[in-house]
Amino acid sequence: MAEGQGRKPLELSGALDKFGYEETTPEIGREYVNVNIVDDLLKAESADDLLRDLAITISRRGVVFFRAQTNLSNDLQKEFVHRLGQLAGKPEESSVHIFPLAPAHVPEGGTPDRHISYVNSVGFKYMFEKMPNMDKRRFDAAEWHTDIQFEPVPADYTSLRVIKLPETGGDTLWASGYELYNRLSKPYQSFVDGLTVTCRADCVLMAIRNRGEKIEEGERGNPLNTGTALTAVHPVVRTNPVTGWKSIFAVGQFSKRINEVNQYESDELLKKFYGMIQDNHDLQCRFKWRNPHDIAIWDNRSVFHRATFDYMNLGERSGNRAVGIGEAPYFDPGSKSRAEALGLVKEPQSNGAPATGHAKACPSMAAGGGAVCPKMAAMAANGAAAGGNGMAH
Ligand SMILES: O=C(O)CCC(=O)C(=O)O
Ligand SMILES: [Fe+2]
């Protein structure tokens, strides 16, 4: 049995209830208002309860934001992300990731630190200019991905604190992997459950080949993350140990090949998952960085994210990223989708379309086969909006 399989999801204690927040969209994202991570959480008397509840909240909402955390140093940011993971039950051997390449550019005032990745526009420019076949479009919007998916033991929580902002632009987007899974029909879910995907860091391997850069071969946050292969096999449907919910995990630039099907089918499936994110913007959220030291923390097990490179003439953008290492990904066949766990599953009609509102209560429509409700048809003819269960008859 894979490690973590059968693990019980974590429950909130309510420790965070005293803080105000706004849900970014119904599906994903939460922004806490007027909370200082250092004073109100890390150094609070009940820090463990607060941080455990925050980890659970990040895992449930996918991504959480705090504004203007000006007293959060690199060291505290690393401690923060590591403690979130520990309190949410990550294995003892997992710590904070070391990116396999040394940063191409440590921004002014930044100290070289192998546990911090500098997400810096000057560094990107340097990197992109040296990349063959880098077309304009890919320069404007990075690709959807989940961080360091090429490691055998990849990320749980990533924290990104943006320190230097352009005049405008540089928003980051997140998309819910839970909801990608929810939007597949039952037979499709059964088909993808249990498949595996090979992930590889081609961009890093290319930098080594083309620019002769040296790889960090020592432990990168876990004894299993070593060597130069930068390749791992993971489940296509991953169970999040904190929520117990299933998520599609095979999305983005590192996901190369679905192993149990032929090349053509693998290409099709990967394209389908990626396309579902692009076609369903109601499972995404977008964050506008407004102040230096705004911070986002997300759960890479169940969300994807994407940077926007639309600010190149509008000033430098620079962020400090600390990435926690979680557990080896697993698929627990006993786990549920988020919709099933929360009782949000809609009953399918015989034509496969989900029955909602009036359609559930109406005897004509419940008969299926595309039968039309006479009352709704009459109301539509009168120009009235038909909806809700209030029209049951
Ligand atoms: O710069 C951004 O908006 C996000 C970059 C990114 O992918 C990351 O920090 O993991
Ligand atoms: Fe990333």
From TrEMBL:
The keyword Metal-binding applies. Its cofactor is Fe(2+). GO terms for cellular component: cytoplasm. InterPro entries: AtsK-like, TauD-like_sf, TauD/TfdA-like. Keywords: Dioxygenase, Iron, Metal-binding, Oxidoreductase. The keyword Cell division does not apply. Coiled coil: none annotated. It holds the Pfam family TauD. Residues 23-318 form the TauD/TfdA-like domain. SUPFAM superfamilies: Clavaminate synthase-like. GO terms for molecular function: 2-oxoglutarate-dependent dioxygenase activity; metal ion binding. Belongs to the TfdA dioxygenase family. This is TauD/TfdA-like domain-containing protein. The lineage of its organism: Eukaryota, Fungi, Dikarya, Ascomycota, Pezizomycotina.
